[in-house]
Structures are given as C-alpha cells and as structure tokens.
Amino acid sequence: MGLRSGAKVLFPVLHIGRHGAQFRHQVSTEKEAITVMMTRRTALKSAALASAGLLISTSLTRALAQAAAPAGPYKLPDLGYGLDALEPFIDRQTMEIHHGKHHAAYVNNLNKALADYPDLQKLSAEQLVSSLDKVPEKIRTAVRNNAGGHANHSLFWKSLKKDADPLDSGPLQEALGELFGDKDTGQQMFFDKAMSVFGSGWVWLSVDKEKKLILESTPNQDSPLMSGRQPLFGLDVWEHAYYLKYQNRRADYVKAMFALVNWPFLNERFEKLTA
Ligand code: MN
C-alpha cells in the first residue's frame, strides 16, 4: 500500500442497503484500509452474484405468476389518483394493499377461473355478475366472488374523492330527498345499514328496475347487479378496507367515508342510470 502504518486515508467503502449499492468514504488507517478493501472485494463479488440471482429469481417468479394467473383479459384499473390522495381518511398503506393486493387478487382469480372459457371472457365483470346463471356451475362461485370483487372495487375507487364538490342540486339530490328526507337522516340510515352488515360485505345506494333509489347491503362481494339493480355507490365494509387505520372500529371508518364521497361523479352516474 506504500502507506505509513497508522496513516489516515480516505477510503471508499461499498454499502449495500435498502436503496441499492453506494460508495461512502471512510477514514481509515492502512491496516483498516486493507481489511476494508478485502471486504469491498467480497462485497462487490456478492453484490454481482446477488444481482444475478435476483434477476433469475425475478424472471422465474414472473414466469410462475404468469403460469398461475393469465395476464388477461381482466385488468386491474388504475386508481386515477395517488395512493395518498385520500389521506388522512384512508391511509396510503391501506390503499396500496387494498388496490394493489386485494383488488388485484380478484382480477387474477377471475382470469384464472375463466382461462378455459373464451366466450365468457368476452363479458365484462358487471355482465358476468348480472348473469351468473350463464356461468357453468363448476366456476360459478369463483366468478361470483371475483367478478363481484372486481366490479365492486372498480366502482368504489371512482366514487371516492377528497374535497369533492357537495351535492347542492340535481336529480340525485332530489332522489336522496325522496328516499331519506333530510341529509342527516340519510347519513344516519346509511351508517346504520353499514353497521348492520355482519362480517364482510357492502352497503349500497342502488337504482331499482323502476329507476328509484334504494339503500341495501350485500354479503361478501355480491353486487346489486345479481338482483337486477344497478349499483350507484357502494361502501366496502370488509375489514381489509379499514383495519390498518381504524382496526375494529367500523363506525369511525364509515363516518370518515362521508367526507370522501365523489358527489359530482355519483350525480352524473345517477343521471345515466335513470336516463
Ligand atoms: Mn375491498
């Protein structure tokens, strides 16, 4: 090394951490520098090996995932907003898991269930749950749960917005007035319905065959479409929708969600459903 024993040198050291590999400078004596250099050589070697291994295992994992779940035709829709856009009512981690894991799983499982049924694949998730009698018995439960989950969540993400414009007028406001009377009564009735869902399910504002607005709930991932009604707005009351932030306190979650209703979207949707 040509260094006087005990001389201080600035020596680059490779650190491999969560954010990848980087060199940091460290003051060392010659002896320490030699040790560090050897460590560095080993580290570089292991880093190269690790990244090669990582590449193999990533492509292997991807290949296995593709074999297990066909890539289509059903796709996880984009949220249309950031994972933290609904903070503080719904936290980023809940959104990450709810959309990226739970909703994604419904999509993957629907693709798997219909892998051997090209004709059924031509139907949307909404069409599938509207006509479960057309689905072979063998895959009916899987389609019910996963097409239901896919359809319900796809509508749910679009129905949420922070600081959305309030509903001051229009056909939906009139229909809500007819159904509930005033706004406070409406919130209380919706809240009570949400609290009355036993286990996992959804509470809905739906449009019935007479184009009237109704309040209802469904178990699991069942949709109002299964009873010939059109879902206008559904609130997910599965624990996976709120457990990380609210733990077991469904009441706090439901109350918080009143601040996230995307009224302009619902008003427009109501107009289409009742046209
Ligand atoms: Mn959910």
Plain-language structure description:
The chain is of the alpha+beta class. The protein has three domains: 9-66, no CATH class; 92-158, Helix Hairpins (Orthogonal Bundle); 171-274, 3-Layer(bab) Sandwich (minor pseudopilin epsh fold). 51% of the residues lie in helices and 14% in strands. It has ten helices and five strands; from the N terminus they run ββαααααααβββααα. A three-stranded antiparallel sheet has the order 4-3-5. A hairpin with a 5-residue loop joins strand 3 (201-207) and strand 4. Helix 2 (92-113) runs antiparallel to helix 5 (137-158). Bound molecules: manganese (II) ion. Residues 98, 102, 153, 236, 238, 240-241 line the site of manganese (II) ion.
Count of distinct structural domains: 3
What radius of gyration results from the CA coordinates?
27 Å
State which percent range the strand residues make up: 5-15%
Succession of helices and strands: EEHHHHHHHEEEHHH
Mean pLDDT: 85
Level-1 CATH class name of the largest domain: Alpha Beta
The helix fraction, in percent, is 40-55%
Distance between the termini: 84 Å
Q: How many β-strand stretches? A: 5
The third-level CATH topology of the largest domain is minor pseudopilin epsh fold
What would the principal axes of the Cα set say about the shape?
globular
Major sheet = 3 strands, antiparallel
Bound molecules: manganese (II) ion
Structural class: alpha+beta
